[in-house]
Amino acid sequence: MFFKLTPTTGQPLYLQLMQQIRHATETGALQDGDQLPGIRTLAEELVVSPNTVAKAFSELEHGGLLELRQGSGAFVCVKRRTRSLADHVQVARRQLRDLIERLRDDGLSNEEIQRAFEAELLYPVEMVRKR
Amino acid sequence: MTNAPVILTHDLAKSFGDAAAVRGLNLSVGANRITAFLGQNGAGKSTTIKMLLGMIRPSCGEGTVLGKRITDPEENREMRRKVAYVAEDKPLYGYMTVEQTIRFASSFYPDWRDAVARRLLSEYKLPPQRKVKKLSKGMRTKLALLLAFARRPELLILDEPSEGLDPVGIEHLLQMLVTQAAEGVAIFFSSHQIAEVERIADQVCILDNGRLLLDASLDHLRQSYRRIDLVFESAPPEREFRIMGVEKIQSKGHQMSVFASGNAEAVIEHARDLNAVSVEVAPVGLRDIFLETVKEN
Amino acid sequence: MLWYKAWLETRSRFLTCLATLTTFCAVFVGHAQGMIHPEWKSDYNRLLFVAQQFIVIMWILAVVLLGMGGIVREKAVGTSSLTLSLPVSRARLLGIRVGMGVLEAIFLAVAPWTTIFLVSSLARMPISITQVGFYVLLLIGGGLAYFAMAIMVSSLVEGEYTAPAVAFGLVLLSAIIFDAWLRPYNLWRLVTGDFYIDRHTYLLSWPFPWQATLGSVSAAASMLLASVKVIQRREF
């Protein structure tokens, strides 16, 4: 499994790692029962603080996506619920494609669309919760 | 026990004559973390570290390292058995060979790991029989790092560890730091290389002019620091944006740029209320956070 | 390993001084014996007394050089932060350096006289072992104060050349001042045997000046103690 963390984006590294692991389960790159490298190995591989990996793992364990077994590492457990999440993503992608199509028709360039997305995405959780 | 801070200082200060090097420093460095100590040259980083290790006496204030009082020579000596320290200029005895240096250092520490020392010796390609004074700067740095990494201390203090290393050496250094951290070693290191810090640190302390300006986790910094670029139809209402979390506002023509250490959502909402034509939010890297923090001081 | 470090640091100085002293003694005495006749016994003893004067000069030079170094010097070179980060007290750091220095100083006192004794014996001009012992004891017992002084200077003065310059200056100054006003307490005359030599036979006359030697040794001890205090208080 390959992960790539970007230290300069405004997102904690552990969140990036969580998303990439989740994404990997959605695409099928990681499947039920697959074993992830241990905290230390993965931290050394990514050259990030072991706490980053530990936090991502424990959050994912809370979410039920990983099962941490004492001494033998982390195992992926993709339940039906996550499968349906994968379906959600499929649907969302289709919707996004339509939206982007429409924006392009309105004369917006790719760059402008991208910037608009980024600006809206930066506070998804906080803003939505507030409203 | 593992959650007690490994370094704790209370109003620690040091002046040399009239010049204050460190002023009222309240530092708390956690166990099980990698803490980076940032600051310009002469900010007081090395002075602080030397005070922790009992090389210079604080003018006032106090501190503990691993629970031992730094100003008590006997407690400090006991603490040094469990602390590995790589000093700023990588001091080594020029008249010893590489092998003699390793043998010398190993004799003082019960936590010395011979196998690791031997592995690093070959990884670093250090010639065992060569005198230290005939080593290149990079090799000396590697030898100094080897002396620290061959141990399994409770706390690892490094002062500018990457100075004099090439990119491959720096990558190896960072990997070693991660390995040590994974083994439960608390790490406290000073650095000018913000890109390195940004990758591996859990916590960042910024020291400027002897004062601690910032002590926060990198996760927190990443989540809360934002630069918000706004465009208004008329002159930007700068005053309206002097709210909590806003550190700095710059405007030019119809444009306004807000540097916020937090509370960015409020800035954005405010901008929308004031009918900003365009609102663009960008994360702020550690380099900019550092520069802005130091500049404001 | 601190002993090892102290040895590595002083090794070349020590060996150079040792070679110089023993060669000098062998040549000095060996060269002189050719002209010796049995009836010139006292002349030979006089020669030995003169030899002691030269040995003292070189020995003091040597111990002052051996007393240089330590963490204050390391601060100037930049290695003090390595030494001080070791889990060792400053008193112990200094103590081991002093221990190594004293051992080397004793060796440097014994070696030249052993050489003289051996060369004399080979040349069938045997000298009394008690006279040799007397000279050596004077050198060590009286002379260690010079070493202690060098240690103290090295704890106070930082520069690579300033420290030995100050130390040698003090040796010279003390010799001049004591000779002018406090002659009975002049360490120089104690160490060279000047106080105890019989001007007819040129033999040292017993008893051994235990009191004076003890005085010098206690002066040395107090200077060493002062050095420990200085080192403990210094910042690096």
Describe the structure.
- The complex is a heterotrimer of chains A (131), B (297) and C (236).
- With 131 residues, chain A is mainly α.
- Chain A has helices at 13-27, 39-46, 50-62, 80-105, 110-121, 124-130, and strands spanning 35-36, 66-69, 73-76.
- Chain A has a three-stranded antiparallel β-sheet with strand order 1-3-2.
- In chain A, helix 1 packs across helix 3 (50-62) and helix 2 (39-46) crosses helix 3 (50-62).
- Chain A is globular.
- The termini of chain A are far apart.
- In chain B, the strands form three sheets. Chain B has a six-stranded mixed β-sheet with strand order 7-8-9-4-10-11, sandwiched between helices. In chain B, strands 1, 2, 3, 5 and 6 form a five-stranded antiparallel β-sheet that branches.
- Chain B is elongated.
- Chain B is α/β, with parallel strands linked by helices and 297 residues long.
- Chain B has ten helices and 15 strands.
- In chain B, 33% of the residues lie in helices and 28% in strands.
- Chain B has helices spanning 45-52, 73-80, 98-106, 114-123, 137-149, 167-182, 194-200, 218-224, 264-273, 286-296; strands at 7-16, 19-25, 28-29, 34-38, 60-65, 68-69, 83-86, 155-159, 186-190, 203-208, 211-217, 226-231, 246-252, 255-260, 278-283.
- The longest helix of chain B has 16 residues, at 167-182.
- By secondary structure, chain C is mainly alpha-helical.
- In chain C, 78% of the residues lie in helices and 0% in strands.
- The mean pLDDT of chain C is 86.
- Chain A binds chain B through residues 7-14, 39-40, 43-44, 47-52, 115, 118-119, 122-123, 126-127, 130, and chain B through 32-34, 171, 174-175, 178-179, 181-183, 195, 198-202, 218-219, 222-223, 225-226, 264-265, 268, 279-286.
